[in-house]
Design a protein that fits this description.
Structural class: alpha+beta
InterPro entries: Dup_hybrid_motif, Glu_permease_IIB, PTrfase_EIIB_Cys, PTS_EIIA_1_perm, PTS_EIIC, PTS_EIIC_1, PTS_IIABC_b_glu, PTS_IIB_1
Radius of gyration: 26 Å
Number of helices: 19
Main location: membrane
Helix content: 40-55%
Strand order of the largest sheet: 15-11-12-13-17-9-8-19
Number of strands: 20
Largest sheet: 8 strands, antiparallel
Protein name: PTS system beta-glucosides-specific IIC component
Number of domains: 4
Shape: globular
Oligomer: single chain
Keywords: Cell membrane, Kinase, Membrane, Phosphotransferase system, Sugar transport, Transferase, Transmembrane, Transmembrane helix, Transport
Membrane topology: Multi-pass membrane protein
Length: 618
């Protein structure tokens, strides 16, 4: 076993020393730190440390990517230092942590699972506008009414959707949460109100009536309060009657409390936010848009953009349009401009191909992470170009008070959602962002030689004894290019070259004959070394380490010899997705540097044991 003491010391020094660490745990490839003082985190020093692949900062968590030897480094650290080492991230979520980071994390947990639904419903709403405006569809016809119901349902019942999602984020009963907010949409309750602000009595106490359909903040506040009430009731209600008594008391207390106090506060707060954004836009729309266009990418990188998403949704529910999303779109198209500029400037054919491949997901789906981490951050000067382009485009969009009618990901495919009275200005703004950024990226240039981090000292290059190594598909599913995986550690090839699969079923088979060299205790990832010395990592889903083994069953142990096609792991795809996780599974050759090239399959979908990757030495 290699000696990791020097690497362990370098990592601890880089995060600010033993005394700066609140807690530490690791997943399949990364050491994950919670720190007392983030300013002591020396990212540059860590990135230049032999043995560290890359460094990621997100939501108050500091991740040091080690690779296959992360468990060994973790064990070395815990032996050398007196550090609180935990088995999973849940143990690190202490109440005394950074409250702002916790709020952003909670917002992320609430909104991430429902954003695709919002985007889909919003696009359907936009398509209906086009059909009625340009193609003669009658807004009075039954076809329109049915499609309108499909597009409006999520927004009308949005408090119910939010209640269910918030319950999972706050760790409370989602079905009781659903019923609490459902009571405020129930016809007998809504029938009490003739006008907003009407007052009725409840047990001789006044209740101010509000309309809650489409609201955002009341549901989040109500379920947050309910999470404390439920814990209190579970502590003191006798087990004999707990099954019905806790839900009954929860409804008895929370429905009047929400209707009388929490709900009105949430509605007024939402209106104040909408008025505040309207004031900012009216006072200096150009400055507001420029700030958003310049800074949105950095908010996404640090994971704090989720704190602004509720404001966008609140605008849509209260006014029917939003002025934040158009400047955000300029940040997206600026990153696409980076990719185009790199394509025009680069001399290396592989870099040109990479630039075009990462530009298309940005233009067609609004996915910019591969560009941000693979080009902008990596080469630095393109990020400067993107900030300038985003500033100019966002400033123009803000100055012209550009609007959007639905919550969608900014992309060419979602243009219908921006077809309001300011659509022309939106097109002009994203064109500015894209072209200015592309031109500046070309003019400023970048260092094409700055492409790879040095190999860890404990991972010397090896020369394979063969010229070709075949890796079969461990799964049946759809192929996903690695640069489209929503995790920069994989999409930037920091872990090595490979490909990803969106699985159709939950069975992982061995892609090679060889040995199980690493098997994480949660079962979400496995490392294999083939008989031909090819090192392979299969990482089931993204961030699934947080499930702590739930929904995974392993059929092998670390150190086992395995044959091609042998069943390694089973996992429940449906339940993992329902828990809010992306099941896209990267398959990586972690010792890619040992090979001249790694050739990916050209198939769009694969069955288990199809040829997936071919590692070649010329």
């Amino acid at each position: 076993m290699a000696d990791y003491k020097n690497l362990a010391k370098a990592v601890i020094d880089g995060v600010g020393g033993e005394g700066n660490i609140v807690s530490l745990y690791h997943c399949m490839t990364r050491l994950r730190f919670k720190l007392k003082d983030g300013s002591k985190f020396n990212k540059k020093e860590l990135q230049n440390t032999d043995g560290v692949i890359t460094v990621v900062e997100s939501n108050g968590q500091y991740q040091v990517v080690i690779g296959n030897h992360v468990a060994d480094v973790f064990d070395t650290i815990t032996k050398m230092y007196n550090i609180v080492a935990t088995s999973n991230e849940k143990d690190t979520n202490e109440k005394k942590g950074n409250p702002i980071a916790r709020v952003f994390n909670i917002m992320s947990n609430i909104f991430t699972p429902i954003v695709p639904l919002l985007a889909g419903s919003g696009m359907l709403k936009a398509v209906l506008v086009i059909l009625t405006t340009y193609f003669g569809m009658s807004a009075e016809g039954s076809t329109y009414m049915i499609l309108s119901a499909a597009s409006n349902a999520v927004f009308y019942f949005f408090p119910l959707v939010l209640a269910f999602s918030a319950a999972r984020a706050f760790g409370t009963n989602p079905f009781v949460s659903f019923a609490i907010m459902g009571a405020l949409l129930e016809p007998k309750f809504t029938g009490l109100m003739q006008n907003v602000g009407d007052i009725v009595e409840f047990a001789n106490l006044p209740i101010v009536l509000m309309g809650y359909s489409g609201t955002v903040i009341p549901a989040i506040l109500a379920i947050w309060a309910f999470s404390y009430l439920e814990r209190f009731l579970n502590r003191y209600v006798p087990n004999l009657i707990k099954m019905f008594a806790v839900p009954m008391l929860s409804l008895l207390i929370m429905v009047p409390l929400t209707a009388g106090v929490i709900g009105p506060i949430g509605v007024y707060l939402g209106n104040w936010i909408a008025d505040g954004i309207a004031f900012m836009s009216g006072t200096s729309g150009m400055l507001t848009g420029a700030i958003i266009g310049a800074g949105w990418t950095f908010l996404v990188m640090f994971g704090v953009h989720w704190g602004i998403v509720p404001a966008m949704l609140n605008n849509l529910s209260t006014t029917g349009f939003d002025t934040i999303r158009p400047p955000v779109a300029n940040a997206t198209f600026a990153q696409a401009g980076v990719a185009f500029g790199v394509f025009l400037k680069a001399k290396d054919k592989k870099l040109k191909t990479t630039a075009i491949s990462v530009m298309m997901p940005a233009l067609l789906a609004g996915i910019t992470e591969p560009i941000v981490y693979g080009l902008s951050v990596k080469y630095k000067r393109p990020m400067i170009a993107a900030v300038i382009g985003g500033t100019l485009g966002g400033g123009f969009a803000g100055a012209m008070k550009t609007t959007v009618m639905a919550y969608v990901f900014p992309a060419l495919t979602t243009l219908p959602a921006f077809m309001t009275g300011t659509f022309v200005y939106y097109i002009i703004s994203i064109t500015i962002a894209f072209t200015v950024t592309a031109a500046l990226t070309y003019i400023l240039g970048f260092d094409e030689e700055d492409t790879k981090e040095p190999l860890p000292k404990d991972q010397p290059k090896k020369t394979p004894s063969v010229t070709r190594s075949i890796v079969l598909s461990p799964l049946t599913g759809q192929i996903v290019p690695l640069n489209q995986v929503k995790d920069p550690v994989f999409s930037t090839e920091a872990m090595g070259k490979g490909i990803a699969i969106l699985p159709e079923d939950g069975k992982v088979y061995s892609p090679v004959s060889g040995k199980v060299t690493t098997l994480f205790h949660t079962g979400h990832a496995i490392g294999l070394t083939s008989d031909l010395n090819t090192e392979i990592l299969i990482h089931i889903g993204l961030d699934t380490v947080k499930l702590n083994g739930e929904f995974f069953i392993t059929h092998v142990q670390q150190g086992d010899d395995v044959e091609k096609g042998q069943l390694l792991i089973e996992f429940d795809v449906k339940k993992i997705v329902e828990a809010g996780y992306d099941v896209t599974t990267p398959v990586i050759i972690t010792n890619s540097n040992d090979y001249t090239d790694v050739i990916e399959t050209e198939q769009k979908s694969v069955k288990k044991q199809d040829v997936l990757l071919t590692a070649v030495v010329l």
